[in-house]
Fold each of these.
Amino acid sequence: MTHYPEPIIKLIQSLSRLPGIGKKTAERLTLHILHASPGEAATLAADIIELKSSIRLCEICFSFSDQERCKICTDPSRDKSLICVVENPTDMAAVEKSKGYHGIYHILGGLLSPIDGIGPDDIRIRELMKRAVPGKIQEIILATKTNVEGEATASYILAKLKKTNIRLTRIASGIPMGGDLQYIDHLTMQKAMEKRYGF
Amino acid sequence: MTHYPEPIIKLIQSLSRLPGIGKKTAERLTLHILHASPGEAATLAADIIELKSSIRLCEICFSFSDQERCKICTDPSRDKSLICVVENPTDMAAVEKSKGYHGIYHILGGLLSPIDGIGPDDIRIRELMKRAVPGKIQEIILATKTNVEGEATASYILAKLKKTNIRLTRIASGIPMGGDLQYIDHLTMQKAMEKRYGF
């Protein structure tokens, strides 16, 4: 690689700092950008700059936004009495992609993890408490992931909000759709049996 | 994806135009850049801009350079009487990585391909002829790839340069090192048998 001129080496190094991009891929991308039209390369560079300068967190749900309030919080067709609590914007994107949800969100920005020194004050639990106004909010869905930290976070929020008369729910665990029973771990299977429902 | 703010969608789209980067990877990279330090993002954007503005072709060998002449053509330790002819800078990089070559290069910028309308005037064969000065150049190694176009290009150059008393060679074909004989295609095997050498 050392035979490349400096600007090529620099871009290869910058790109290979990105997650999942190795030296080889970075080299391929750099040579592609070199051959691309000047407009395409300029657009890419401008989009990176714009991203960093214009994105902030929605003041209501803390998801990414280029305004004070995000698209979802300002969408009149969304049910504002229904809050789905997720760990991060990626999890929120996963719920959005399913197209099965029409409420709004609350992004915690992390999960409780005593081992990593992450307590209730390090994630946006206080902000969730402020939003949990009985009468205004009908239901809060706890959609943190189903590992130890996710379950602990859900339990903590549950305990904190129990006294309000807001309905509190947890996303279902069980066999994935199309999933073959023989490949399911036994904890998931236990959960699926425990939460079985009648017709 | 439509729930993301505009600047995020724009960068995802710009990144997914790169080869081998799908929507999912582009989304992951965008969220990484969003969380990265402002410095890291600015560096990446600046490196893209600098790449496009500062890279040109070496006036001798036509590889990438940020000067009139590239690092290799100006390296006093390189043997200037030995030219390795390759299709493109990626192939040149492959030869460089092997660290087995100490001459200089000639980048054709393509291969002869009548089917795609690429003739001798469309690639840098005339420029190679100009460089092929007997006395100054001892040997020209034809290192175009071993498919139909690569072989045709090598043959064409061979015919053109036959009358000079420059030594003309072609890179060897055969079983890759560590290659298992049973997985080798029969053309490679034929070539490996035909070009067998004594001890």
Amino acid sequence: MDEHCDQGCQNLRWALALLDGLVAGGMRHLVFSPGSRSTPLLLAAQRQTSLTLTPILDERSAAFFALGLARAAGHPVGLLCTSGSALAHWFPAVIEAYESEIPLILLSADRPPELRGWGANQTIDQTRLFGGFVREFHDPGPAESGAAALKMMRTLGARVAAVSLGNWPGPVHINLPFREPLVPTAECSAESNPPLSLNRNSGHKTTLASSEQSWGEDIDVWTRDLTAMMSGRGLICCGPGTFSPVGESLAPLGFAEALWKCSEQLAVPVLCDPLSGLRFGADSTHRITRYDSFLRHPATAAALKPDWVLRIGRAPVSKTLLNWLADIPTILVDPGQGWSDPNKDVRVRVNADASSFCLWLATLAQDVMDKQTHADWSAQWTAIEQQCAQLTANYLAQAPWCEAHLLTTLLAHLPADDGLFCANSMPIRQLDTWSGGRSAPLGIFGNRGASGIDGQTSTLAGLNASGIPITGVLGDLSFFHDLSGLLLLRQLQRPCIVLNNGGGRIFDYLPQRGLPDFERLWRTPIDLDCGALLHPFGIAHCAVTNGDEFQAALRECVNPSEHQSSGVIEVRIDAELSRRVHYEFWQHIQASQSI
Amino acid sequence: MDEHCDQGCQNLRWALALLDGLVAGGMRHLVFSPGSRSTPLLLAAQRQTSLTLTPILDERSAAFFALGLARAAGHPVGLLCTSGSALAHWFPAVIEAYESEIPLILLSADRPPELRGWGANQTIDQTRLFGGFVREFHDPGPAESGAAALKMMRTLGARVAAVSLGNWPGPVHINLPFREPLVPTAECSAESNPPLSLNRNSGHKTTLASSEQSWGEDIDVWTRDLTAMMSGRGLICCGPGTFSPVGESLAPLGFAEALWKCSEQLAVPVLCDPLSGLRFGADSTHRITRYDSFLRHPATAAALKPDWVLRIGRAPVSKTLLNWLADIPTILVDPGQGWSDPNKDVRVRVNADASSFCLWLATLAQDVMDKQTHADWSAQWTAIEQQCAQLTANYLAQAPWCEAHLLTTLLAHLPADDGLFCANSMPIRQLDTWSGGRSAPLGIFGNRGASGIDGQTSTLAGLNASGIPITGVLGDLSFFHDLSGLLLLRQLQRPCIVLNNGGGRIFDYLPQRGLPDFERLWRTPIDLDCGALLHPFGIAHCAVTNGDEFQAALRECVNPSEHQSSGVIEVRIDAELSRRVHYEFWQHIQASQSI
């Protein structure tokens, strides 16, 4: 691609990428009203051979026409107009589409952000103009160049087309600001570059549990294409999420059982996020938990690259894993409205109950896939997981006591069917790295929706109020951030463990480390005596600095006597030592791992 | 009024009241599109003789017609349509009106709340349909009967008309749900009942500082009407607010000087809220501060009722005062967008700089008003203020030590130009009752925007960061609500005084007192040792229980030595005793006061 094309050409490539995605997602008609600012999109539409263009002068009439067309055709229909009040004329039809669940793709051209709110002509605030009457709103900003930007636009197109056809069909709105010039000054070599083959199915509504199909796509065709996509070496990655809400699944098996059955039939490994609910409980040789460690080894990472990944739930906690997954064609299973695809690699999104889908896939694999081809592949993953577990154990046996030992001890100590809440920032990442798996069930909880360090103490108190005994692991900054939560910690059945390492130590692992005034502006330690702080709240406290003390504290705090409540175990961590241990461990893995 | 009229009649009265207000506010045209749900408003419009009705089939066309009419006529023009997508057709014209600052009154009929979101026909979510493109949005709910409800609707009409013509003219939206039947089944005696005479001016934009006039009303007519309204016995009530922002006023005098000059010329008392900035600083015989005490005396309250009140700023802290002001014709001065009128008594709203308006009024009074007529009136207020101050002093001299003595001591002790922050719930009300006035300036601060008990400690820390030494007075519940704020209290120049009376004692004065489980569900005391709590934060603490101890603590805490920071003075209050003192005091005033 010519990176040095002019603004007009850049606008055109940008618009073309979006339309590629929309067409792949099933859009076949674009109804437009004349205007100037919408020119790049119209130029791009001209280059889409499978797109029918219909000009209608009045935007209101255009919108009702598109509504009728989409209603009868069962495909999403695009609407295009210029900036200003033009798109407001769509509003009545948008409301009708919202209520009648008709897939409309609203493409409004806009002036660039630097002109909005500064009195420029025909410039209004178009963002979220239709309020709650669209299923999604996007404003991707002015055109950018580069492969990643164009990939994002293609994926955005496929996504909104899919959303418009999803389990709650309806209008979606993309607001598209363009900078001038709007027409390429020279010949522009921009070409249509549709997403991978299966994209045309990505808008598919597949409610497998009820076998219901809408928008009239043929399940056999879809299945054949999916099977083709999954013919190479693949893996399942299960992220944070609750996949078998009690009483809501129609599948005959629980999620974990269905998943292990599926991985067995497909002969693929399952990478289990700490918040997937899969690390603790019934074992499987397919369960992989130590990827964050062994994928840091470049040779291992390269050797294990799959041809496809089936992702279930939200993106995983491990950034190592997420980065490694980039550019691998992805099937995403999500029963709700989530569109978890930060890498923009989803080719097929399955909007279905995860248990039902896994069982369906297991049956499919039994019938049509040749699992023997991939037995080696699966065995290779199992071997490296075991090797990594052994290397980790060997390394920790001789390393100074730190969070790794603490978590290992804790996991060995907690009764079956207990819960563990890991706060954000370091604790959940530490758990991810060191937990491994165990056969006794243990519920893992974390606030990964927005991943803040706020409200962690109060959340722990709320979790405990469920009746399940839940141990907390929090960093000192999280703990001090939610001081009002201390009022709620009086009735704990299990300890709240505070890893006191003197401030936000996650920054020690990030590029901010070493910036001027680093301690005061990023690490921000809070100088408070934890024991003295807790005393007036009547919360028991003990401070420990090594493994023996921690084990002793744990024995006392887990299952406190009838008349006592569990308290806070403050673990004083030598953060610098801990940091050295982590980096040494990663070097150790790189030096010792063989594949 | 017949309170037993049917639903249709009730709808009609409701709609009529709204239109009365709109007509009084200057609306002369109503453009409507046919529909059923809007029937009550159309029936009401037929009874307004000064209203021209124009039917236009297409709502979009109707909206642009109204836009043109309002643009040329310079008066607000009403738009009326039925429920469903009908009002969405207005959107393009609404956007144009928003940008061009044209006064449109958008009246959308709606289904009642019980039908919204439950699949009823022609029912969509009409609330805030135009997002940020209207100046105000109101949804007053289905029609109610009774004088207070109708007064509210009349005032709402006058208000939105005024807002549409305000210092930022533009569209306003009132969504009006109606229950069936929409037509009165019998003869309905509902009549037009316009607001008091001056209402027709209430939409007036009066930027006195710049002598600017828009929407072409004659300032002489307006002044004559205002003067007529102020011919009886009046008073000024100055509520919470900052009326002379530094560098923003165009008036030659500061607000307090301008106000005292105005009260002098008008010969009227000024009731000064604790947050008005008028209680402490240059004295005036017109300054009244003890109204919350003496207006509890029924005979006094009746004898002092004025014919009009000029209100400046937000509604006063004193509920006694606010209730006493109900039904008194009110002139409201507000330089901003506030429309502080919980009693719905505002007849004229002056959207002007408060200092400039006071000076203008002082000149006007000098020229055209006869202040001698009201000299007795003013002297009567001064006398009762002085009498109440003496009665209060006499009473407190023999009463057990409580918050009243504490505040009196504190105000006598604080250096001039210091600040005092009173938290919500009890402290600000105690200050209101006991402060009186003093000639040395003292800045009073409080969070009365939403009047929460949240964030009070953090607010105090922020106030102190301004460089002004500011003492805080907080209740124990506020103090314990914002525990995270303790991290910010390390560098105080003045003490933070915590009135620890064991929970939310304001409920002891409210009807909730005595309900089952009152202590646990309303008073909600927090059982924390304040000293132990503060120790780990490095905040000094002392606990006092009487006047001598408090004075000693105050001497130490105000102006701490260079290397020390001021700390927390915890005042342990016997809440039951305090409550008895308050009730006894009010009885004492009622028994002793003479008028």
